[in-house]
Fold this sequence. Notes:
Layout: E1 11-22, E2 25-36, E3 42-43, H1 46-64, H2 68-78, H3 82-89, H4 93-101, H5 108-119, H6 123-130, H7 137-148, H8 152-157, H9 175-186, E4 189-191, H10 192-210, E5 219-222, E6 225-228, H11 231-240, E7 244-251, E8 254-261, H12 272-284, H13 290-297, H14 301-304
Antiparallel strand pairs: 1-2, 2-3, 4-8, 5-6, 7-8
This protein binds zinc ion (ZN).
Amino acid sequence: MKCxxxxxxxxxxxxxxxxxxxxxxxxxxxxxxxxxxxxxSIVYDQILDNIASEKxxxxxxxxxxxxxxxxxELRNKYNLSLELFAKIIGCAKKTLISYEKGTSIPNDNYIIxxxxxLSNPLLIIDLIESNKGQFTQKEYSKLQDKLIQNNxxxxxxxxxxxxxxxxxxxxxxxxxxxxxxILFLADTTILKTKLLKEMFYSDFLYYKNTGASIxxxxxxxxxxxxxxxxxxxxxxxxVEQGLIDYKIxxxxxxxxxxxxxxxxxxxxxxxxxxxxxxxxxxxxxESFTSKQIAEFxxxxxxxxxxxxxxxxxxxxxxYLSL
Length: 322
Ligand SMILES: [Zn+2]
């Protein structure tokens, strides 16, 4: 290689500290470059220059965007082809290839979409629904089979060791349904005690009709009635993700625990019979105060026959008073 500055032909290689500004953000990294022995300027070297530019992209993506390994891992977890995954996130196939190869920096929109999918894989269902027009009939039914129906995303991402029992209503936990059940019942704000009991009635009533629960949640008996087991974890997880809001307000020595919806309710993930149950439960308890619904639930066999802090068997659903 010849030096552009002095014309010298003797070169050496050394580690060089690069400082670049990409999209207005500073990045620093080290990689080997070729130098002129005479004047010490950088001399063009295809291989080393390519390595440096890939390193620049990689450094930026790790610091400000999303790194290629995560994109590949995400697509593999969904078990989707490049073509289908590109359509879902709304970019061209060759763009996605360049992201996965690390030869370009995803634009900010895609960084947001990809990071959202990483933190909440179930969001892909909304993306599929809102880009529905992009897919052929064949592609769309493929996506239905792979991701939308039968809780498949949960199988791909979350619990690998599901066991159908009388405590989960022989149903795999579906976090997307849990969230949307909360959003539907909260509409737009509800007291926590009332919400937890309406969730119990929804799942148990559906079980009474079909032998399966809606969400796959397990319920337990506490002083205030039947509630989803680990409800605090469930609620704080959705609060952390910014999908619901949880506030405690004080009113004449009383604490009001209020749950409000932030995310939009998505009815498409429910079967029509499940929606009917949700509507029925919400309507039935519409005028009930928290105290009234707690007292009402204390009459249920599911409550009276279960020991405190123990899980409730779904089979008590057959004795429900609604
Ligand atoms: Zn030179």
